[in-house]
Fold this sequence. Notes:
Catalytic activity: (6S)-5-methyl-5,6,7,8-tetrahydrofolate + NAD(+) = (6R)-5,10-methylene-5,6,7,8-tetrahydrofolate + NADH + H(+)
Structural class: alpha/beta
Cofactor: FAD
Low-confidence stretches: none
Domain MTHFR SAM-binding regulatory: 309-582
Strand order of the largest sheet: 7-6-5-4-3-2-1-9-8
Radius of gyration: 27 Å
InterPro entries: FAD-linked_oxidoreductase-like, Fadh2_euk, Mehydrof_redctse-like, MTHFR_C
Function: The probable reversibility of the MTHFR reaction in plants suggests that they can metabolize the methyl group of 5,10-methylenetetrahydrofolate to serine, sugars and starch.
Amino acid sequence: MKVIEKIQQAEADGRTVFSFEYFPPKTEEGVENLFERMDRMVAHGPSFCDITWGAGGSTADLTLEIANRMQNMVCVETMMHLTCTNMPVEKIDHALETIKSNGIQNVLALRGDPPHGQDKFVQVEGGFGCALDLVQHIRAKYGDYFGITVAGYPEAHPDVIGEGGATLEAYSNDLAYLKRKVDAGADLIVTQLFYDTDTFLKFVNDCRQIGITCPIVPGIMPINNYKGFLRMTGFCKTKIPAEITAALDPIKDNEEAVKAYGVHLGTEMCKRILATGIKTLHLYTLNMEKSALAILMNLGLIEESKVSRSLPWRPPTNVYRVKEDVRPIFWANRPKSYIKRTLGWDQYPHGRWGDSRNPSYGALTDHQFTRPRGRGKKLQEEWAVPLKSVEDISERFTNFCQGKLTSSPWSELDGLQPETTIIDDQLVKINQKGFLTINSQPAVNGEKSDSPTVGWGGPGGYVYQKAYLELFCAKEKLDQLVEKIKAFPSLTYIAVNKDGESFSNIPANAVNAVTWGVFPGKEIIQPTVVDSASFMVWKDEAFEIWTRGWACLFPEGDSSRELLEKVQKSYYLVSLVDNDYIHGDLFAAFKEI
C-alpha cells in the first residue's frame, strides 16, 4: 500500500500516525541487531518505516536486501530511499525493479550526498543531477505504481545555507523547487530534521501559500548524545535555538541526562506540532529504539504493555499478498519461515483457506534454521545443557512453559505469548509427563477483541478460539493418548512421525477453523486453521529442528546430540484440537496418563 494512502486514511479517521527511519548497519551482526530492534518497534504499529541509501550508493545492495526483509519478513510498510549519487539510470532502474518485484510501493527520491571524498555533489555520467529528475523518471517509467516521497527543508537545503542561514531568495528558490518536485509526481513531503518548531510551522505555511497541498511530515530526531547531536546538526547546518544550547551545555558529559532531555524536547516539539492539526510524525531513530518509543509513549500514541493486533499474526505488507488473511496455525511461532516458504504463490488465502494441495510450499533451506546472533546465543545458553535422558529433554520444555527460559528452538518469537498464561499450568503438567509442547492456544468463547491477552482485529468485535495443542511424544505415549481421545468426541487429532507414518481421526485434507472473529460491518474473519495437508509439510520442518535447531548446539559425537537425534527418529508430532470451545477440556485427555 502507498504511504500517502495510509496517511489519507488516518486523516479521514482522525488518527495520528507515526513512522520510523533506519540506516543500514556496517556489520552483519549490526544488521541482525537492527532487525531484532525493528521487530520490537514495529509491534507498536508505525504507518511505515524507511531505510536510507548509503552515501555514494555504498550500501546499495544492503539497502535493497534490508528493504525486502522489512516489507516481507518484518511485515511493515517499507519506504526505500533512492539517491542519484553514483547511480546511472541503469542502476536506478535495477533498484526500482527489484523493490517492485518484492512488493514494495514506496520510494523517497533524493539527490543524495556528495560521493565519498568530495565536497560537492557530482552528477554521474548517464545519471540524474537532482531529485526532480529522479521523480520525473519514476513517474514516466513506472506510472502510478510507486508512492513517491520527497525531502523538504524547513531552513532551506544545506547547500544554500551560509553562516547566518539561508538568504530569503535562496529559501524562496528552495520552496519553488520543492513545488516542482510535487508537481512532477511526488505525493508526500518528509522534512529534514529541525529543532526550532517555529521554523517548521512557518515552512508548512509557506508551502501552503505557494500551492503545495500534499501532507508535510515533520522529521523529528531525538537527541541521544551530545557529540552526535553536534555532528548531525553541523552536517545538516541545522539551527540550534539558544535555549537548547543552554539546556545541554551543563549536562553534555552526562549521557543519560542528555537522552532524558532529548526525550523531553522531542515530546514538547511533537505536542506543539500536533496541536496545529498535523497528524503525522516521522522519527529519525538512528537505529535506536528507547528515545523514539519514549516520545511516543509520552504523547499517548503507544502503550508499552498494550500492542494491538489486526490479526493473530502480523499481516503482510507486500502488495502481492495484502489480501492474505488466513494461515495454518502450525507456523504461529515461526512466521518468517512461513512467509519464506510461501513466497511466489500466485494467490494467497483470503476469506477461506481452500485446498492447500494447489499451492506448493517452498523446500526447506538453511534459511529456516539460521538465527540472529542474539537469539542463537540465548539458545546456546538455555538449551545446550547436558542431556542424559528423555526426562532431561522434558525438563527443557517444562522450564520454557514456566517462563524460566525465554527461547525455544521451535520459535522465532521471544518467550511465551500472552495467551499462554491462561493455560501455562496445564502445559507444565503435560510436559512433565513427556508430551513436549511446541504450539498451543486456549479455548476462547466471545472475548472482546481488544482483550490484552487474546484480542485482535481492533475494538468493537468478539473473538473465538478452539483449544489447540501441538506436541511431540513417544509412540507408547501416543497410543495411550489416542485411546483416551476415544472418550472425547469433540477432540480431533493428526499424528505423524519423521518418516511420514500417520494416524488421525479426521478425513484426509480436512480443514478446521480454530480462530475466528466477529466485527461490526464485516464478514466473519477466520485467520488460523488446522489443515492436514499443510501439517504434513510442516512436520518436516518441525522434525528437522530437533537436529538443525537443537542438536547442532552440541559438538559432533556428544551424547546429548545423539539422544536428540534418537528422539527425532522415534517420536511423533501430534496436532490436537478440541472443537467444543464452550464446554470442552482439552487437557482432560491427558489425565491418568
